[in-house]
Every structure is written in structure tokens, then in C-alpha cells.
Amino acid sequence: MSMTYWEDFQVGQVYRFGRKDVNREEMLAFAERFDPHPLHLDRDAAQAAGFRDICASSFQVCGFCMRIMVDERLKGSASQGSPGVDELRWLLPVYPGDSLTVHQEILGKRRHPRRPEMGFCNSSFELRNQDDAVVMRMFSAGIFKLRNPEAPMEEQA
Question: H-helix or E-strand containing 28?
């Protein structure tokens, strides 16, 4: 795979990538260490709360998404990190046995106003399960190196 730079992203472009199969053991290990809420550890407690089984911690779900993004998109890119997430919503529970994929849509991009060698790429990200249902959505900006930083600033999308 060739290196992906800021210029390679096109507004309106949609990417679908990755796959993460969720298993009970990793959910329990994460919950025991970082988020020991009974919904994440005890099937009876989860079912009493209206879930069909234990559900993944929302922050573990973020970790699943990030892992897919790094493995499938960011490792082969000129990524320089991100200034943050503008919005993050957990829409459906993630259960043992779910299979997750990421859908990314490029919403906008602009050159960095003070660092001409970099640009921002604004995206929406959806983490979807095996039924194509959106379990998590976030909006975020990524910072990427430019392939051609000498190009005029007008060459923005």
C-alpha cells in the first residue's frame, strides 16, 4: 500500500474497512481492569437492565474502533494525530460475538493556517456491527502531512 497524504482524501469519499470480532474474554478482562460496572461483567445484571448479555464498555468500543482505524488506515498514511473528537455517541450495545467494521466519510478538509506542510481532514466515523447497525458514531479531525507542501494554498477542498 502506498503512503496516504492529505491530498489523497476527497470530500464526500466513503471508506469501509476493517473487521473486529468481539469475544467475551476480552470484554471481561477490559471491564475487570477499567470499567467494572455489572453490565459489563455479569450476564444476569445485564439482562435485568434489559440487555441480552453483557455489553462492552463504551470506552472499550472506542478502543475497538481505534484499533481498526490504525491497522487499516493510519499505518499507511502520513497521519500526524488529531486535535480531538467533536462528538461521540454510543448508539447500540456491543455484545460478545459481534463483528465490527468502520465506515468513514470525508466531510471537509483544509490546509493548516500556520503549518503549510500539514492539513486537516474532517470525517465522520461509524462503527457498525454484523447487521450493519451503527453502534458508535463520532466526528473527528485528523492531521496529515501534505505530499506537496509547496502547492498554493488555494488548492484546498
Answer: helix 24-34
Q: Which three cell numbers stand for residue 63?
A: 478502543
Other C-beta atoms closer than 10 Å to the C-beta of 139 total 15
- Structural domain including 123 reads 6-23+57-145
Q: Alpha-carbon distance 56 to 34, whole Å?
A: 11
Render pLDDT for 47-92 as a digit per residue (tens, 0 to 9). 999 999 999 999 999 999 999 999 999 998 999 999 999 999 999 9
Sign of the CA dihedral with 56 first, then 61, 67, and 69 last: positive
Show the cell assigned to 86. 467533536
Per-residue pLDDT tens over the stretch 90-118: 999 999 999 999 999 999 999 999 999 99
Who contacts 123 (Cβ-Cβ below 8 Å, separation ≥6)? 104, 105, 106, 107, 139, 140, 141, 142
- C-alpha to C-alpha distance for 122 and 108, rounded to whole angstroms: 5
CATH number of the domain at 133, please: 3.10.129.10
